[in-house]
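During the second year of the project, the team shifted from modelling isolated chains to modelling whole assemblies. The rationale, set out in the original proposal, was that interfaces cannot be judged from single-chain predictions alone. As a representative example for this report, we include one of the complexes processed in the last quarter. Its constituent sequences, exactly as entered into the pipeline, are reproduced here:
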Amino acid sequence: MVNVGIIGYGYWGPNLVRNFSETPEANVVAVADLDPARLQLVQRRHPNVRTTSDFRDLFRDSSIDAVAIATPVKTHFELGMAALKAGKHLWLEKPMSQSAAEAQQLVDEADRRQRVLIVDHTFIYTGAVRKMSEVMNAGELGKILYYDSTRVNLGLFQRDVSVIADLAVHDFSILDHLLSEEPVAVSASGTNHFPGTPENLAYITLFYDSGTIAHVNVSWLAPVKVRMILLGGSQKMITYDDLEPSEKVKIYDKGVSFTDDPQKILEMRVGYRTGDMRAPRLDGTEALRVEGAHFIDCIEQRKPPQTDGNLGLRVVRLIEAATASMCGKGETVYLQKQVRFA
Amino acid sequence: MVNVGIIGYGYWGPNLVRNFSETPEANVVAVADLDPARLQLVQRRHPNVRTTSDFRDLFRDSSIDAVAIATPVKTHFELGMAALKAGKHLWLEKPMSQSAAEAQQLVDEADRRQRVLIVDHTFIYTGAVRKMSEVMNAGELGKILYYDSTRVNLGLFQRDVSVIADLAVHDFSILDHLLSEEPVAVSASGTNHFPGTPENLAYITLFYDSGTIAHVNVSWLAPVKVRMILLGGSQKMITYDDLEPSEKVKIYDKGVSFTDDPQKILEMRVGYRTGDMRAPRLDGTEALRVEGAHFIDCIEQRKPPQTDGNLGLRVVRLIEAATASMCGKGETVYLQKQVRFA
Amino acid sequence: MVNVGIIGYGYWGPNLVRNFSETPEANVVAVADLDPARLQLVQRRHPNVRTTSDFRDLFRDSSIDAVAIATPVKTHFELGMAALKAGKHLWLEKPMSQSAAEAQQLVDEADRRQRVLIVDHTFIYTGAVRKMSEVMNAGELGKILYYDSTRVNLGLFQRDVSVIADLAVHDFSILDHLLSEEPVAVSASGTNHFPGTPENLAYITLFYDSGTIAHVNVSWLAPVKVRMILLGGSQKMITYDDLEPSEKVKIYDKGVSFTDDPQKILEMRVGYRTGDMRAPRLDGTEALRVEGAHFIDCIEQRKPPQTDGNLGLRVVRLIEAATASMCGKGETVYLQKQVRFA
Amino acid sequence: MVNVGIIGYGYWGPNLVRNFSETPEANVVAVADLDPARLQLVQRRHPNVRTTSDFRDLFRDSSIDAVAIATPVKTHFELGMAALKAGKHLWLEKPMSQSAAEAQQLVDEADRRQRVLIVDHTFIYTGAVRKMSEVMNAGELGKILYYDSTRVNLGLFQRDVSVIADLAVHDFSILDHLLSEEPVAVSASGTNHFPGTPENLAYITLFYDSGTIAHVNVSWLAPVKVRMILLGGSQKMITYDDLEPSEKVKIYDKGVSFTDDPQKILEMRVGYRTGDMRAPRLDGTEALRVEGAHFIDCIEQRKPPQTDGNLGLRVVRLIEAATASMCGKGETVYLQKQVRFA
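Output from the structure prediction step:
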């Protein structure tokens, strides 16, 4: 049994409390929030959970094994470091920190203290991404040619993070999880249409040494909601439409191939091929439930999570690089190769 | 009555012959093509139309008033100049030429000889774009914030033009038609996955002085077909889904607005507003029919077409700039301001 | 403040408890269920609510003003009568009883004791149906020509009710609410593919004196989920797709009209007209919340609810008639005219 | 080489002329129509085809092997009999005649004279129906439980046939082709909303001895176009959406099964199962092309077509039975068992 404390009961915190409450191997001991009204809500919903307005109470409580932090991004570093230094295992909301330097310190601290550090990149734990991963690992797609994601809707403008840190972050984590290589360069464009607000719309291209290219289109200003990923391989291609109630993931037996037919060569050099499509059944378990159980399991087994601090760090590096490129109207930003620990 | 000759009876030429045949004020006199099999097909379908394998026959024929050229792009300049020098009015397929320098010469030659020069940017004549133009000119959208187009499918790889000249060209012409300003800079990324072929996938961002931003995603390598434009204004927003059998254009009474509510300001600075949506009835006349009649009318009234050589030239300039940026992995390319004649 | 007791904490009961808990003018006092495990769940979620395995405790408790019954259909009559006789206002799940005779007794008992009797036909309180009602009452549709509903999916086979009582019941209540007349005859076909189970698939046609015709297609055996209503008027037509995340209701300026054009009369006698479509913004409040507040309001104001016992009774009569016709492979069953109280 | 004459160049005739013109083994010799303007159109489009306003010219012409009749339904019998008596092979548009008695005479006459008689139930030759047939014949679906078709749109009101003969006829032919049994009873409801016009909306249920049930919903009065068939088997289920540009046919590994789990039995007696879905690649050849070639082949090989007169006759019998039931507001009409020749 792992005792968990949660800091932050705003938008996402309630999901964490609810999920850990229903995870057999976990026990929610305490919740901290600065807002007394939110703490009253916790008491009403979870009468057995202790509440406090001082997050340090959680660090001091030696019965607490792990702390989950669901507060604004700018507080992640300070709270996360304090939790690790108090010897707690750490669950951090995404993105894990405001800068790669901070993320690196968090990773190092967790390593030094042998604590489990998970970053809540929830998408990795969805039935859809797990199925895509399975299909790719089986080699069905062939060589990966491109990844193309559209993630737009009329969304609440965030105060302290841009649309890249809010939405593109999902694609950065999915790409890191699915591909066996890291991007070498980034070009991003975007804009904030309202002075004094973060960018509300951005287009990001990631370049890979293998020739794979990835593109992410994110916006808080679209009249319709779109959550669509295209993933093209030389053998097969995948679409992942997260708004489909069922059949979210479709695998197309479509591809391109060089032709030797002289008649066709006259017009083009590449032919295409169309076969069946299939939509595999997906595991419908709530992703956060899967992730919570995985976190507990990693603590008990002393193993690194799938979305560990290193993955979280690489995602923050991409946010930094994309933001830098966006300031330069698409100027290419090269990423330094990093040793990958995962 | 305007007598028309057509050069090129490959993929698009038959549409031109059919349309001009059914335009009351036009008369198709002759068709030229290098391939005897294609000329036989003309004779079978249109027994009264003269055929020739020598396009110069059309220039020499003084009964021919106008020539339409539907040949590979690399031949547009030579054939177009010859037609103009022979005193013919000119219909050129898109893009009008391989380079902006050539396009400028074609424009100048047409001006000098007082000939009508139309570039076949067909989309401008669709019911959908005409309705969007009407709604924008009525000021319904407010300030234009962004234009975002996805135009992908598993398409035939072109031999002599990239996916930008094949597909993004449609968005460049629509943007030129709808917006009252020209872009000042371009950032584009793209790749050719098969050595020796043109780019088969590209992502292009256009920047405008007013703050409007435009983005175009084009690909010949997608497992599904998408033809979707989002157009966001400060008052209303439009979606244009060309694959919808009806209701292609939808106008959303949605937008964002600054808030003075202190509670909301704590979380964000911009609020959003959602109202009704309407899908206006669109004129279903075939765009090529509308365009053909417009060309004849321009010849008879001696007036410039909506998609004249200047628009065609600006589109070629954008293709050049986007291609240059794409070679530099998204490097910003600034466009020189041009006097706009339209 | 109205004190509420709920009997039955199975599939739907939890929604009632949650909703009344969050309705300001209501207070959930007690919950009864035969299953101790369900009562434990109540205690965990709502520590301040009393639980009991004997539903009679609720009737004896004079502090309880109203009782909501969410138990299997076959128990509705006995429990409902007991509640009314104990002087409680009554909320009954749909369908209100197994027979029209029972429904009539419940209505009479409520009338005699001046108690409010509401039947939980939730759809009537959705933003979609309320908007459709508003549009129809404004006369926008013209004369109502037909209502056509498809309500199919791969659903859990019910044990004690057929697919008509499970799904068509929604359409019967919507029709009763929207139309100003009652059907005069019913023809229904259907089947149970598995011996010993209720009908799992049915097609029902309702005939009205005015010429309006209604059709309902319900099934637990469809591979895809469909929730689609078409409503055709002589002036405009409506579609209501309940699976659309937004734009559930669309109003089409489409219709048919007689033509005097002799050319057209040669081919047909009726022409059609196509105009704009609009999707009005819908109130997104949870229907059960609206209905709960309405029930409380009716109790306090002593007024009949929109879905009162008479509506519930008419719905049960239709279920009976449709079931009788279904046994006769579509044999017409005529409905006796009833005085309408609403 | 088979010489073909076509009678009727109205709505469908041009498709027949075009298709037979492009079928290598066929040769279009002559076209008859009463309207001189239609004949002029033939001459313009097909200069080598003879035209006549007297259909008897085609019967007298001994060089003509086969006659295709695309005239109003009420003329099918007279023209068809005359063609057969003149020794011609016969292609009849659907439905083949106004009554089953006439259809029987046409079948008998063709048998007596050993002529090929095909009825143009085009859907049978689509890639979609051929694939469905293939899947069913392979036993993939298990026992067939139901067939459910919706075929509605805002359509031209026909003058001489009801919506059943216009639209439901497609389902009657598909059912006859796919199922190995004939229906034993019919119940249909429908109405004509405009006095003096045929029924414009109808709901038809077909009953089969095996327990299979079929339902067809047809209308010329719907604001949106729907062309959707659901086909449920005990093992798998199919959807066929004819408006999907690709992936028209989807095969769902979904079904129901009895359960022995006592816990589940408490709530229901049947469980369901959900697996992968696949959309097989369909042959995209135009159905009319396939059918034309099949007709020619049947003539040359002296074999009966897939949609021979017997199938056409059974379809007419269903139209008669459904129409009779519709007049009786859904009254069950029993079909006499017929020996099946196919």
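Chain B touches chain A through 58 residues (CB under 8 Å). The longest strand of chain B covers residues 221-233.
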